Amino acid sequence: MIKVLFVDDHEMVRIGVSAYLSAQPDIEVIAEAEDGSEGVELALELRPDIILMDLVMKEMDGIEATKKIMESWPEAKIIIVTSFLDDEKVYPALEAGATSYMLKTSKASEIANAIRSTYHGQSVLEPEVTGKMMTKMRKGTNTPLHEDLTNREMEILLLIAEGKTNQEISDELFIALKTVKVHVSNILGKLEVHDRTQAVIYAFKNSLVK
């Protein structure tokens, strides 16, 4: 059983999520805390496998609580579960030592899967958080956006620049149409553009197409 401590100042949130998690065959919510201060005490006393941590709470917020837990117990695995995606919350939380970052708008099943993945040593980040981190890293290194593309994504971008449709790309590369659509979506996201036309313009501006 993966033992979980849930720290959140909203009782109804704790009740709902805890009920779902406790119904899982491999997860057990062993304790709940309604503020960061109590969360720190319970975390260091019980040493749960996973700590679900809200960010905005009375007494002590989740960032400060995460810092205190990590200072005394560096092996702790903390998953931030919050409604906030703004930079002043995301980066401090991760810098404080949080392993994963989820939103309260996530499905309960997604939070359960994040618990399992984090327990097994993986870091789980909401796609929006991943995008923010990649953008921040690029700004610090001046790395071109297209360098985040995989070889397959670059291949598909060049075919898009040639004017080929998704079906034509599917036929040429011998991959499923659904797979092409997923790659195109990833390409648009990584290039931070809204449609295929803007992706083509990016490709020409950055001399990816001769």
UniProtKB/TrEMBL annotation:
The name this protein goes by in its record: Response regulator
Domain Response regulatory: 3-119
Broad class of where this protein is predominantly found: cytoplasm
Organism, scientific name: Bacillus salitolerans
Entry annotated with the keyword Transcription: yes
Location within or outside the cell: Cytoplasm
Entry keyword set: Cytoplasm, DNA-binding, Phosphoprotein, Transcription, Transcription regulation
Domain HTH luxR-type: 142-207
Modified residues (4-aspartylphosphate): D54
A Pfam family assignment: Response_reg
Keyword DNA-binding recorded: yes
